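Quick one: structure for this chain?
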Amino acid sequence: MKKVLVLGCTGSIGTSTLEIIRNFPEDFKISGLTAHNNEKKLLELSQEFGCKHLLTSKNPIENLNNLIQETKPDIVVNGIAGSAGLLPSKIVLENKIDLALANKETVVMAWPLIKKLAEKNKSNIIPVDSEHSAIFSLINQVGKENISQLVITASGGPFRELSKDELKNVTLEQALKHPTWNMGRKITIDSASLANKGLEVIEANRLFDTPTEKISVTVHPQSLVHSLVRTNDGMLYGQISDPDMKHPIYSALTYPFNKENYLKHFDLFDCTMTFYKPRYEDFPMLTYAFEAAKKAGSYTIAYNAANEIAVDAFINKKIGFLGIPQLVNKVLQADWTKEPESFDDVFEVDRWARKLSQENL
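Got it. Here's what it folds into:
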């Protein structure tokens, strides 16, 4: 039986993780739970799972280290949203524990440091994003040496068919109506702007040590194909399932094994799959992400920080939807060439990028 610590247990990733554990009580046991500020829900889950080890974001980050040492989990699911998820990832790996990672910012902001820490402590980092989970699985099956290209699929979000003029007037309420996925507010808006796909390009570049020239994005509105790899002989191999985060979470929890489960099998009959080229000019957040990944240094940290500030400003109706890429582009014009040498450096760059973003609102 695996002991599982769930970070961000009341969010979408955490909720799906707990649903899996409910269905596999003989395979998994909750050793600890953390939540942002929903203390009522946290206590309810504590009673349901018989888990006494709880934390909220009100507690100092050092308390997470104590929680891990007390509960000794076999794997930690990091479902914390945003840059707040980076330090918890670091603490998990410092404790030599496997990390099921749904927090993009851990990779986008500090991958060289995180990778070094994981290698030093012989901890596995298993991606939970559906796209990266798919690529991770395909690489394990096909062999990285046989792969010439990674193809990341994107739903295109709710504005896929709108013209650039129409994008000027879209509302927050429209941006939050994702056609295929049920996610948190920030990631839903990122999906609408394609910033989420931009972050995933950066992740793929780093997680799988693949140059951006060998990474492409295709818009796939049905969200059935979660990513593909092209092998050296030109053939494409993809992972197909209904758009449900329980699939990649279960794969991470059971890694390195491939086990039967209760999840619905995908039915090929009566399904339609379409694929389109991304509209890079109308959704420039994707272009900026490719550029940030190529430049390395601290550009990806600046990209992420500026986007978080811009999305918050959009949610609070301080800027329009197209103001998001405009702000990010302004911030990326600064010099971010210095590579962080420590986690303190990472957070210093993040603070500076956020300050610059606020000044340019």
